[in-house]
Automatic annotation (TrEMBL):
Organism: Micromonospora lutea
Protein name: Alpha/beta hydrolase
Keyword Hydrolase in record: yes
Pfam family, one: Abhydrolase_1
GO molecular function, one term: hydrolase activity
Length: 341
């Protein structure tokens, strides 16, 4: 047992036996994770051709639930090639006009290991507002290909900034889900040039810390050699207990969790002081039953810290709120964009 762990346990009173056990388990789990996940590769990669093929089959099946994209774009950045899809607008827009008389497009940033197909319920509704671009996050399972290490929050912002700069619009309404919400806020803090507004949907590491219980439950899901049922159990836990077996998007996420080795820095928890610097409209949507943070505390932080914030707490919603309440989500985003031209 490590010296640091011994010193912590020595300071605990005898009645703190359960805490002792928990600390031992956490220490051992951390050592196991470090041992299993170690690799000389500096960038995200697949563990095998078979694992990549399994993910691609699931990705293709889940992608079929989306409308046909008008364009498929691969953007070269300093950190790799970023896959972007454009879904053409099906509506008259909101009156929010960009240069040249075109409506400002939306850019959707998915959660961890989920990629574009996670937006299948949302794209048809959001495309009534404007064109919709979806991005497979660089360094995550998906069609983007990382070829240079990403080592800081600044570099996380830079590849996304370069991607937006390559698209045919000067401004975008960012919409980020989970880690995509953190990615949007991180971009706004470092490179806000192209952001007209921002919607963050139950973002992690933004308004509150992740609970210890969720961190502990995620450890087995991060070990690729453990049974698929363990990853399914964690994904169901984050989705409010909903069954995930035989769901194409859930199958894709599980395949990515098992076969893709992430090599990204741990996201920095964004402080209230930094949030208060955001000088742009922000819609914060918080799922009341989310296991990724204390929802009410997160909502309070958002209301307190955002200069130009609008906060919506969705009753009964889990972290999978984008699939549970897509109509309400689209209506709130449309109203928000219309009120912040």
């Amino acid at each position: 047992m490590g010296t640091w762990l011994k010193s912590v346990l020595a300071r605990l009173r005898p009645r703190s036996r359960r805490m002792r056990v928990l600390l031992v388990l956490l220490g051992l789990s951390a050592l196991v994770v470090v041992f299993v996940m170690r690799t000389p590769a500096p960038v995200g990669h697949w563990d095998s051709a078979e694992g990549q093929d399994r993910f691609l089959r699931s990705y293709t099946e889940a992608f079929a639930a989306l409308p046909a994209p008008a364009d498929t774009i691969d953007v070269r950045t300093d950190f790799g090639i970023v896959r972007v899809y454009r879904f053409a607008s099906t509506g008259a827009g909101t009156g929010d006009e960009a240069a040249g008389g075109r409506t400002v497009p939306l850019v959707l940033l998915p959660g961890r290991a989920s990629a574009t197909p996670v937006w299948a319920d949302n794209v048809p509704l959001l495309s009534t507002i404007s064109d919709v671009y979806t991005i497979d996050l660089l360094g995550e399972p998906g069609m983007s290909v990382q070829d240079r290490p990403i080592e800081s929050d600044e570099e996380q912002a830079e590849w996304l900034h370069q991607t937006l700069r390559a698209l045919p619009s000067d401004e975008f309404h960012l919409v980020g889900l989970s880690i995509g919400g953190w990615t949007a806020v991180n971009l706004a803090l470092h490179r806000p040039d192209h952001i007209a507004s921002m919607t963050v949907i139950d973002p992690v590491y933004v308004f509150a810390d992740m609970p210890l219980g969720t961190i502990v439950r995620s450890i087995p899901a991060a070990l690729p050699w453990l049974p698929k049922s363990w990853r399914d159990s964690f994904n169901s836990y984050t989705a409010g207990g909903a069954p995930v077996e035989d769901e194409p998007v859930a199958e894709m996420i599980e395949a990515g969790m098992q076969h893709y080795q992430l090599r990204l820095p741990q996201p920095t928890r964004i402080s209230e002081e930094r949030l208060s610097r955001l000088d742009l409209p922000v819609l914060a949507i918080i799922a009341e039953e989310s296991v990724m943070h204390d929802a009410r505390s997160a909502a309070e932080t958002a209301r307190r810290s955002l200069q130009r914030g609008t906060v919506r707490l969705y009753p009964g919603a889990s972290h999978a709120v984008n699939g549970e309440q897509p109509e309400q989500l689209a209506a709130d985003i449309a109203d928000f964009i219309a009120s912040h031209p």
